[in-house]
Structure formats: structure tokens, C-alpha cells
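Dear Dr. L.,

I hope this message finds you well. Following up on our conversation about the binding site, I have prepared a predicted three-dimensional model of the protein together with iron/sulfur cluster. For your records, I am including the exact sequence and ligand specification that went into the calculation, followed by the C-alpha cells. Please feel free to forward this to your student if that is useful.
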Amino acid sequence: MTCKPIIVVSRCLGFAVCRWNGAAIENRLVKDLANSVEFITVCPECEIGLGVPRPPILMVQKDSGLALVQPATGVDLTGRMVAFSYNFLDSLDRVDGFLLKRKSPSCGVANVPIFADPDDEQPIEKGPGFFARAVLERFPDIPIEDESCLEDLSRREKWLTAVAKGRGIPGTQSGFSEGNRDCAPGIYGLAE
Ligand code: SF4
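The resulting structure of the complex is given below.
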């Protein structure tokens, strides 16, 4: 078992070309953290069987509840995404933080558009994507951010500190003993 913080990260943030449009994303923070944390990567949309590239999906508020749909195919992905999300999260032995991709109807932590109809251009409200919703429900006390929020240095520092506390890093009651301080990740230095 690693002594580094364990962070679940959206796979498209530099680990694989898995976005709907096949575009690659590089993320500086992910690169900076690579030696200090243990990443568990996940692409919920690929995990439920969607290919790359793929027609975009979006959230729709139906009478029956919030749905995840793919307008180009008419497929309702809600059941598959909810089942995958909770199965994946329940399979984690330990997690200290989540770093997810912004604006995604799956991974977005907040402010993802929700439409009354798939053909609408204007959303009726905004909220977390489906995978992020499951994270927020299952792990309400684990630090979670999207990559754009962590461009704010103050917010990044708070997130990094909260992630580090999850591993008993100095400053917490369950802090590392003198004998295993070398397990402490050097991530504070990133929040310059
Ligand atoms: S935002 Fe999430 S679902 Fe979309 S490509 Fe990235 S990891 Fe996959």
C-alpha cells in the first residue's frame, strides 16, 4: 500500500486521449504532482462503452429526473453512468482527493449546464456532472476540485493541504511519526 496521497483524476487530464472530440489535454498540476501522489485515473464515459471520438453527451432535466443523454444517437446513458460511478467509487480502498475535468457532464464538479430539452441552446440550471455527483454523495468529506479551479493559487493550496491531511501529514492529530516522515509527499511546495 502506497504511503503517498491517493488522488482519483479524470483520465483526459494528461493520461489518455479519451475526450469526446479526441483532443489531448496537458495539465501542469498533474505533471507536478506525479512524483508526490498516487493517481488513479478514470474516464467514466469510456468505462460505460463510449468510443473516442464520440458524439457529445449532456444532462437533461426530464419529468422522471435528471438524465444523461447523447442527442445524436438518442441513447439515454443515465443508468449505465450511475451504475458505473457507484461501483467504481465503492471499489476504492482509499482515496484522499479528486481532481476532475471541468464542464464535463460526467466529471464536472459544478456549473455544468442542464437543459430542459437536448435541442435547447440555453440551460435551465447548472450543477455537477453525473460522476461528480456520485463522488460528492459517497465522499462528502474528501477534497474535490476541477482543474480550472486549481489555477487559483489560494484554492490550490487549500486543496493540496486537505489532500495531504488525509494522509496524516504534519499538522494533524494523526500525523506521520518521526520514523516515517519520508512518506510525507512534498506537495506543499507546489502551492507557491
Ligand atoms: S471529462 Fe471525464 S468522462 Fe470526459 S473524457 Fe475526461 S475523464 Fe472521460
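In brief: Helices lie at 28-33, 44-47, 78-90, 130-138, 153-165.

With kind regards,
A. P.
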